[in-house]
């Protein structure tokens, strides 16, 4: 009799305690079922086939912004397109200012903010399908899936302009216009190129210092908070999504000072960066490479046909789950 009671008590404790530790994904909408490859790829197709390459300041970047804004409005977000002046890098312009823009979609909650962003501009080689129609498509699919569910905190989806070395970038402008409100941003999710690379990855943010004397020298990595990356990795494991991170012998789970997350890293905002990339067997261990044959981004090969639907779909699923966990208050800084 006593043994039976003890067994019952143990079973009860196991049932009550263990799920609370590992069932984060079970307590939220089933984003794996809610998000499908066809609808994600439709966004990639509009951006990279119907519109095509979207250099900063171009008519095509503006068309992309209109499309993204229309979609997000349809799903109930308060959308504004904010224009800003920027100087493209020398290989994309003649030093003249151009007008770029950010699409900013807000769902008002309490004063704490979760930012999810991806850049919509591209270089002129190829049509910016992987870099970064794939990332925009993934955040659009996440925004649509989340729009049916309540969250506590304010959620902001952003399609950035002028990421491809604009001075300033769209992310710089967002950080500047947030002003003191930046302190209310609990986390930023950046999605840049999730459609072509060999493996799906999530990284944490770090301040990076490169050596002035030696271009080949390893950078100094001043690691920022890692809990948002770890949240994404935990959710990926629960959802059976194959995500890894950067290798121990180089970035050690962090990423570098390119792309839109970095403006937020410099403001001490915890970030997670989604990227499809190959680290193992890369020619340059610090750069890695996109595929076994080398990089596709910024080449004529960065076209719709080279985007892998499942990669963008799985990215969208994990972005939705991570954003939902953050915005609902299920996950917080340790
Ligand atoms: Zn990019």
Question: Can you describe what's shown?
Answer:
The protein is α/β, with parallel strands linked by helices and 334 residues long. The chain has a single domain (31-327), classed as 3-Layer(aba) Sandwich (Aminopeptidase). The chain has helices at residues 2-22, 31-34, 37-51, 59-74, 129-146, 170-178, 227-238, 261-265, 309-327; strands spanning 78-86, 98-107, 110-119, 153-160, 185-191, 199-204, 206-209, 220-223, 243-244, 271-277. The strands form two sheets. An eight-stranded mixed β-sheet has the order 1-2-4-3-5-10-6-9, sandwiched between helices. Strands 7-8 form a two-stranded antiparallel ribbon. The longest helix is centred in the first third of the chain and has 21 residues, at 2-22. The model has no long low-confidence stretch (mean pLDDT 94).
């Amino acid at each position: 009799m006593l043994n039976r009671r003890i067994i019952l008590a143990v079973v009860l404790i196991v049932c009550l305690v263990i799920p609370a530790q590992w069932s984060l994904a079970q307590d939220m909408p089933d984003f794996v079922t809610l998000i499908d490859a066809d609808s994600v790829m439709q966004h990639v197709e509009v951006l990279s086939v119907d519109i095509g390459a979207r250099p900063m300041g171009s008519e095509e970047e503006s068309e992309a912004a209109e499309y993204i804004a229309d979609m997000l409005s349809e799903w109930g977000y308060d959308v504004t397109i904010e224009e800003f002046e920027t100087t493209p890098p020398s290989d994309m312009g003649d030093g003249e200012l151009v007008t770029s823009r950010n699409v900013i979609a807000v769902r008002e909650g309490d004063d704490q903010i979760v930012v999810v962003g991806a850049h919509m501009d591209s270089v002129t080689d190829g049509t910016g399908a992987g870099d970064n129609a794939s990332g925009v498509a993934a955040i659009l699919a996440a925004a649509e899936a989340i729009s049916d569910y309540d969250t506590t905190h304010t959620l902001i989806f952003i399609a950035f302009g002028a990421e491809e070395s604009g001075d300033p970038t769209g992310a710089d402008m967002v950080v500047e216009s947030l002003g003191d409100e930046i302190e209310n941003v609990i986390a930023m999710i950046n999605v840049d190129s999730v459609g072509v690379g060999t493996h799906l990855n999530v990284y944490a943010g770090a301040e990076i210092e490169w050596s002035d004397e030696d271009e080949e020298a390893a950078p100094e990595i001043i690691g920022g908070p890692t809990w948002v990356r770890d949240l994404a990795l935990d959710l990926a494991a629960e959802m059976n999504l194959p995500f890894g991170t950067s290798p121990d012998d180089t970035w050690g789970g962090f990423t570098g000072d390119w792309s839109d997350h970095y403006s937020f890293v410099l403001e001490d905002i915890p970030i997670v960066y989604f990227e499809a990339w190959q680290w193992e067997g890369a020619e340059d261990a610090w750069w890695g490479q996109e595929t076994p044959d080398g990089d596709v981004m910024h080449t004529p090969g960065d076209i719709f046909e080279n985007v892998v639907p499942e990669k963008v779909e799985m990215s969208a699923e994990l972005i939705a789950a991570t954003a939902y966990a953050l915005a609902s208050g299920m996950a917080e800084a340790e």
